[in-house]
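Quarterly update, task 2.4: alpha-D-galactopyranose-bound model.
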Amino acid sequence: MGTAVGSWRGATLAWVLVLLAGAEALENGLARTPTMGWLHWERFLCSTDCAREPLSCISEQLFMKMADLMVSDGWKDVGYEYVCIDDCWMSLTRDDQDRLQPDPERFPSGIRKLADYVHSKGLKLGIYADVGNKTCAGFPGSYGYYDLDAQTFANWGVDLLKFDGCNYGTQDQLAEGYRNMSLALNKTGRSIVYSCEWPLYMRPMQKPNYTEIKHYCNHWRNFADIYDAWNSVRNTLEWTALHQDSIVDVAGPGGWNDPDMLVIGNFGLSWDQQLTQMALWAIMAAPLLMSNDLRHISPQAKWLLQNKDVIAINQDPLGKQGYRISKDNNFELWERPLSGGAYAVAVLNRQEIGGPQIFSFSTSFLGNGLACNPACSIQQILPTSKDWGLHNWVSLLNVEVNPTGTVLLKVVVIGEFPDEKPVMNINKKPSPDIL
Ligand code: GLA
């Protein structure tokens, strides 16, 4: 009897916990792992002159071409799914029924046809709108039209909305706008990922309430727009680490912090900096939205963006965001808890002078001492795939990292260390294979 009551209580408690947890996230069933796809902004900006720039203007041709390549060049196979339109797709005026409409010259077939095309490839279509009176580039905003615009997107077959926050009016209007668009999207009955910039626009005035934001959004931008430059990637990482106490815990299936697009495959990052962006975006459980030109991308950048081991870390089903454990001179040590008690570990060398440097640390630093306790196997994922073999809970790891580069590891805990008992020996010599 006592056991039956106990287990009934246990089951009730479990349901209460499930319901409470469920109440926290936007439960539209989407973005259980971070969204993966392609987004035009960083690489193609607001190019609207198709006579002058036929291959890079914001037109249906551009998105159809990217959809083709996402399938033919293996992007879809590794998980990139959403082909996303950013700002500058609209006509400067709404139609005679107040609906948003695409620029007729650049999108002559209309968005419904484009969505059909993207869907015929097994992909999904993303679109962009703004909570205020105008988009950031000056096209019509959704203020006053949230229900109509949500319904228009649903009718077109859109699968993701990036909702920007320019020209939002008052703080109340900003918050109300983000909430109302979320409700309007849900009301359409169509599954539409809701990508917000709410905390980015809110923060200068007041501290974002992330529990509330996660209740309404599938992901949300916190920090400035990414540029194709190392200082931009570096600043994004630094901001994230400095605010990790308030943003890491809220992330999880259904709702993610969004540090903005991947700029890998463009012009501004060195190879090591591209490795850093990919590794750290995996650690941060970030949406992987590439902004590059899939028609012209180096085999090396493609290898990195399609690396299945890094993608598996980014998409880990546990859905916990990683964090910085230490910042030691020029080295940063980050970790991310993964399913099965494993950890992803990134060692970033921030020094912008000199050559490769060695960072040494004990495995006892990882996972609060549990990642490698009593033993673990370590696999290097980036810059190259390499087996580092077995280690115990106080092994000393020596990791050599290029300037502004990152070494990404996966640490898998194992119950028993086969050859030796775990002993407290901080000065244990590292095995030569990791030097
Ligand atoms: C803002 C957003 C960017 C992009 C532009 C478009 O700056 O943060 O990601 O959408 O607007 O105008």
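Highlight for this quarter: The chain is about 30% helix and 20% strand.
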